[in-house]
Amino acid sequence: MRTPEGIDAERLSDRILFALELALEQSDLEISEKLLHAMDMSMTRNTGGGEFVERRDYPPVMEKAVERFFELKKQKEAVG
């Protein structure tokens, strides 16, 4: 499988990001939401205890995908 530039094929979060970007391009809000949740889980798993607070920032490419998700969600809510 060919991976896009900037995607580390060894990291699960990057593979999920690739799928998220594809779902966003296809304006698939339901799948995008599930992939966003999965990406968040993959980045925070195995870190800290029960009261752990994530302090890492998403890389810019992931922040952009999150912004695109919320833009799509806003558009879908406006339509109906």
Radius of gyration from CA coordinates: 14 Å
Find the structural class using helix and strand composition. mainly alpha
Tell me the domain tally. Answer: 1
In N-to-C order, the SSE pattern is HHH
Q: Considering DSSP H and I runs of 4 or more, what fraction of the residues is helical?
A: 55-70%
How much β-strand is present in the residues? Answer: under 5%
Largest beta-sheet details: none
Low-confidence stretches are none
Give the overall shape.
Answer: globular
Tell me the distance between the termini: 37 Å
Rounded mean pLDDT score: 83
Number-wise, the strands total: 0
Number of helices, counting only DSSP H or I runs of 4 residues or more: 3
What does this protein look like?
The protein has 3 helices and no strands. With about 80 residues, the protein is mainly alpha-helical. It has one domain. Helix 1 packs parallel to helix 3 (about 60-80) and helix 2 (about 30-45) runs antiparallel to helix 3. The protein is globular.
Give the topology:
Elements: H1 12-25, H2 29-44, H3 60-79
Helix pairs in contact: 1-2, 1-3, 2-3
Give the key terms.
single chain, 80 residues, mainly alpha, globular
Overview in brief:
With 80 residues, this protein is mostly helical. It is built from 3 helices and no strands.
